Description:
Elements: H1 4-23, H2 27-39, H3 41-56, H4 60-63, H5 69-92, H6 95-114, H7 125-142, H8 146-154, H9 160-184, H10 190-213, H11 219-236
Amino acid sequence: MLSTTFLVSAVVACIAGMVRGFAGFGAAMLMTPVFSALYGPAVGIALCLLLEIAVALPLVPGVVRLVEWRRIGLLLLAAALAVPLGTHTLTGVEPEPMRWAISAIILGAVALLASGWRFPGRPNAATTVAAGATSGFLNGLSGMAGPPIAFYYLAGNEPAARVRANLTTYFVFVDLIALASFASRDLIGWSTGAQGLFLAPAVMLGGVVGERLFPLASEKFYRRLALGLLVCVAIGSLLV
């Protein structure tokens, strides 16, 4: 626990937890590249998923009253079907072209949101299924389910508190689905679970701090931060 690798992991986990507690997403953006470099992609992504669940669970009781469960359910159903495809792709496809494709798609989505575009009315069922499936695929592939769902909610006109509540709750379930897929392919071992247990306090502490900071932010600041996080995801995906 006093090794340089562990201390670096703990600091990154704490910062990532703070981002997650504030924005409702973005922790994987920080943890996945660092953990993949320190432990290898498969272990790094599995560890990231474990810590994402650890930081999100204490946040759910405070936001559950704002969650729109019907849409969350449809998103999760689509994600559950797509996660195994992403996991299979992780173990069988060259990563370089996939990283560039993910980065380009995310940057395009950010540019669209920054232009002021929003869904005309509420997103329909087909749009919801597409967002969930894309999120599940990316979660199985890279441990970063955030970009499609963040785009899906930010493209609407809901207040920041409701967006954050839905993102926080969605990721608890989709990460559990991804973990089950990883476990079924023997990509999670006892050592990974032990590492996650020791790093959990750091990421949970960050989550509490981020949650306390959220009420201090304006709607405009929240959306700008969310777009900034998506840009960082696009850049970070090239480094994983």
